[in-house]
């Protein structure tokens, strides 16, 4: 069988990165600022890097200090579904703004896409949206075990939720979901009010991974 052209592999890798998220229906063309709450989606970087392979974003997957949990996005949500690609007059984020978020969202392409799809619905300027994204990320304490993983391991999705709950007082199981792909840890999604306080989100909670055990790969410098 002939190998797939490189452009198809690159397209597949980008699609994997940009389509992570909930399976509830979206409502394209919403009104900026009209939503109920946010979902902060934290992606386990080694899973993306292993799946994307040579076509992974080098800023994320060939970093001198390998990434672990990174921000996939901060998503305005409705109680059911979410708005996206809203008609905003805020314009595009500047290169300076995109560069300023790379330490927690290490892909300019992903950051630009997140602004267009989700940030435009926040009612904020690009600068304020990414500032809020940083505030949301810094609010979450990553369980210590995930900062020291250096070999593949197995864990139940409920155990991942428990670790985050214990590390973050006030965070409950009903306010988050653990997602998976191919039996591997994919994301931890945490629901936040507009003031970034924790809040329950039944629709997101019910969309979590149903596997009994997940593989958690360690970060590597090159894949």
From TrEMBL:
<dbReference type="InterPro" id="IPR001568">
    <property type="entry name" value="RNase_T2-like"/>
</dbReference>
<feature type="signal peptide">
    <location>
        <begin position="1"/>
        <end position="28"/>
    </location>
</feature>
<keyword id="KW-0732">Signal</keyword>
<dbReference type="GO" id="GO:0033897">
    <property type="term" value="F:ribonuclease T2 activity"/>
</dbReference>
<dbReference type="InterPro" id="IPR018188">
    <property type="entry name" value="RNase_T2_His_AS_1"/>
</dbReference>
<dbReference type="Pfam" id="PF00445">
    <property type="entry name" value="Ribonuclease_T2"/>
</dbReference>
<dbReference type="InterPro" id="IPR036430">
    <property type="entry name" value="RNase_T2-like_sf"/>
</dbReference>
<dbReference type="GO" id="GO:0003723">
    <property type="term" value="F:RNA binding"/>
</dbReference>
<dbReference type="GO" id="GO:0006401">
    <property type="term" value="P:RNA catabolic process"/>
</dbReference>
<comment type="similarity">
    <text>Belongs to the RNase T2 family.</text>
</comment>
<protein>
    <submittedName>
        <fullName>Ribonuclease T</fullName>
    </submittedName>
</protein>
<dbReference type="InterPro" id="IPR033130">
    <property type="entry name" value="RNase_T2_His_AS_2"/>
</dbReference>
<dbReference type="InterPro" id="IPR039378">
    <property type="entry name" value="RNase_T2_prok"/>
</dbReference>
């Amino acid at each position: 069988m002939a190998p797939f052209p490189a452009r198809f592999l690159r397209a597949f890798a980008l699609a994997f990165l940009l389509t992570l998220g909930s399976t509830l229906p979206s409502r394209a063309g919403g009104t900026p600022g009209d939503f109920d709450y946010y979902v902060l989606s934290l992606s386990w970087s080694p899973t993306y890097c292993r799946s994307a392979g040579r076509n992974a974003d080098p800023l994320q997957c060939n970093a001198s200090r390998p990434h672990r949990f990174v921000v996939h996005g901060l998503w305005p949500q409705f109680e059911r579904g979410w708005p996206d690609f809203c008609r905003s007059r805020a314009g595009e984020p500047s290169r300076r703004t995109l560069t300023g978020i790379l330490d927690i969202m290490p892909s300019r392409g992903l950051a630009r896409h997140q602004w267009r799809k989700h940030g435009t619905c926040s009612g904020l300027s690009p600068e304020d949206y990414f500032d809020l994204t940083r505030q949301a990320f810094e609010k979450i304490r990553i369980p210590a075990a995930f900062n020291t993983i250096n070999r593949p391991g197995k864990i139940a999705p409920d155990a991942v939720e428990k670790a985050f709950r214990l590390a973050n007082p006030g965070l409950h199981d009903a306010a988050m979901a653990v997602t998976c792909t191919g039996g591997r840890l994919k994301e931890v999604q945490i629901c936040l009010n507009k003031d970034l306080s924790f809040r329950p989100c039944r629709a997101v909670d019910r969309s979590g991974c149903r596997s009994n055990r997940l593989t958690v790969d360690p970060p590597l410098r090159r894949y």
